[in-house]
Amino acid sequence: MPVADASVILTPVLDWLDLVGVAVFALSGALIAARERQTFVTMGFFALMTGVGGGTVRDLLIDAPVFWVRHPWYAAVCISMAAIVWNTPTRWWQGKLFDYADGVGLAAYSVLGAAKAMSYGLPPISATIMGIITGTVGGTIRDVIAGRPSILMRPELYVTAAALSATLCSFGMWLFDPHGVSDWLVWAVAAFAGLVLRSAAIRYNLGLPAF
Amino acid sequence: MPVADASVILTPVLDWLDLVGVAVFALSGALIAARERQTFVTMGFFALMTGVGGGTVRDLLIDAPVFWVRHPWYAAVCISMAAIVWNTPTRWWQGKLFDYADGVGLAAYSVLGAAKAMSYGLPPISATIMGIITGTVGGTIRDVIAGRPSILMRPELYVTAAALSATLCSFGMWLFDPHGVSDWLVWAVAAFAGLVLRSAAIRYNLGLPAF
Amino acid sequence: MPVADASVILTPVLDWLDLVGVAVFALSGALIAARERQTFVTMGFFALMTGVGGGTVRDLLIDAPVFWVRHPWYAAVCISMAAIVWNTPTRWWQGKLFDYADGVGLAAYSVLGAAKAMSYGLPPISATIMGIITGTVGGTIRDVIAGRPSILMRPELYVTAAALSATLCSFGMWLFDPHGVSDWLVWAVAAFAGLVLRSAAIRYNLGLPAF
Question: Of the residues A6, A46, C44, C121, which has the fewest C-beta atoms closer than 10 A?
Answer without folding.
Answer: C121
